[in-house]
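Hi everyone,

Forwarding the result from last night's run.
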Amino acid sequence: MAYIKPNNFVLEMTQNGEKKAFMSVQDTVTRAYMAGAILGLAAVFAITINITTGSPLLGSILFPIGFILLYLMGFDLLTGVFILLPLALITKQNKVTLKLLLKNWGLVFVGNLLGALTIAIIISFIFTYGYQTEPNEITEKIAFIGESRTLGYSEHGYLGWITIFLRGMLCGWMVSIGIIGTVMATSVIGKIVVMWMPIMLFFFMGFEHSIVNMFLFPFAIIMGGDFTILDYIIWNEIPTILGNLVGGLFFTVLSIYLIYFNKEEKYESN
């Protein structure tokens, strides 16, 4: 598999971060919207596979299709810009500012949320023939997931909140590894392989991804899940999104900065 050597991929990532920081509002929101929509569809696809085949592993193996598609199409997830823009900011090689970084994060968040909500409404409509029939096994399963991953955590108090935060950290780490892989790999097949491995791992292990949850939990509420929007925000989305951010920054951005930044000469012979 052809790939970019370490002394080059750091520069490539910082340049990608700079491009996203200066992208127009329309482009940023549109790319984020499509990413949220694709990921929502991938989530219900994987859960449907889990239920119809009885194999969670098979669902986890196929779930990365959504990530692969959206990154090959050039769409953006919040978990992706969580690492690309900070790299561009801390290396001080570009004109990226904290204001531009926060603006990008906010726009991508809104786009991801709108895309995920759109698919949640469409799929819930399809599964119930316009909300005329009773929820099926798939919708009941998603509603159960919503309850267990909000009220289930709240039963444990602050330790439950910390638990979901840590699950989010590990997810952010795995997603960022996949993003690095797509930069390092120079062939489409290479990008698919390096993205597939960490995404399959986080999905099977039950780590928390903020954008996946933007689809799952609103969908569960529409389908009659016994929890509220406030439960979802406090006991899932906030700790998950913070965990995704900290995981990407600590495990990926910081390690890349300490190992590779301004040390290109060290790796030229590799």
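The CA atoms of residues 75 and 157 lie 36 Å apart.

Cheers,
N.
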